[in-house]
Amino acid sequence: MDVQTTDPEYVDRVKSLLGDDGYQQAFADIEEASGLPNTAYWSNEWLSLEQERVFRRSWVFAGAEAEIPAAGDIKPVDIGGAPLIIVRDRNGIVRGFHNVCRHRGAKLVQEKCNRSYITCPYHAWNYELNGNLRARPHFHGPGKMDKFENGGGEKVDLIPVRVETWNGCIFVNVSGNAEPVEDWLSPLTNRTSSYDYSSIRWAGKLDFEIRSNWKLVYENYMEGYHVFSVHPKLLKFAPMNLRGSGEWDRHVFYNDYVFPEADEGRGSGLPHYPGLPEKDAQRGLWFLCFPHFAAEVYPDQFTILVSYPIAPDLTREELHVFLIGEAATSNAYQKERKSVLKMWDDLTREDIGMLELLQQGRLSPAYDGGRLSPHWEAPTHQFGRRIIEKIVAA
Fold first, then answer.
1. Contact (Cβ atoms closer than 8 angstroms) between residue 328 and residue 317
2. Nearest-CA neighbor of 312 among 223, 216, 384?
3. What is the pTM of this model?
4. Domains defined along the chain, listed by start
5. pLDDT single digits (tens) 133-185
């Protein structure tokens, strides 16, 4: 890396955790490289660096707009270790705020809900849905009520968080310094210009808890090497000879294949993107927009995989399925919708067992990061490198 673009303090912290050899391995050629050292999968200090330097400084998927369809809908989320709320205000605008009262720091919202106002459970400070302080009882003495017409100012109003939306997806950038979300997504959208994403609608989601580090979810997601031994149905759908290793385009990993015929759950029985060219009617594409927004694009769907670290060895994973137009909600497509969700549920559960074994193996002092396949695992190796680069970047 260019030393002029790095923060020496964080370079030193990374090297103190990974060791000089572990640091250098991340930048070695794939023929000589290994994966990240075990510390990167078990250390609380390392996870804190990832939360602060990677997740908070990047765009992170916070959910689907369809999860908060009505004014007053509120969804609490944790992004980069920071508790936040996603709110749809009275004008239908999606907003984000730090989920903490400006008085004594109590967490405001504990679960998804619908409210006319946001009221702190501790001293009942009351906020508008746009974050403005509305009222605070007894603050200047018993029976005295402070009321505010347009908020109380930057010291007492809720602290906003940058939020942008894209075709029903909500993204949060805690630092506020990321490029516009459409620019960030452009390596994905440029490669899929024939797909009309304005037609996608949220059809539902799947939730998983995995006893594994969050990075292993994406390392597994990117490489197709394990398909022949872990995913029998997926192997039948798209055999190994159709698979490549993929590549990085700026901060976005990309891979694709052309499958021989549509299958239940992928391309069969559901409407396709309007105007999709024939050449894409049997194509599957998958992306990872660093650090955590993974998207699979098939002729009939846009499916998102995201993982959120809870602890070094515990990850919450969500799969959000978007289908085309009325296929997302119409009773006419209920059977086909269930087939799509079952397909993703089965596939994910096949992976979970392997991810938990990978996590357990990283307790072994005999494991030194392994030997990576130059054919299959160069993108996986680059993922680890990008994490280090983001942590140490000035």
1. no
2. 216
3. 0.95
4. 60-165 (2.102.10.10), 179-392 (3.90.380.10)
5. 999 999 999 999 999 999 999 999 999 999 999 999 999 999 999 999 999 99
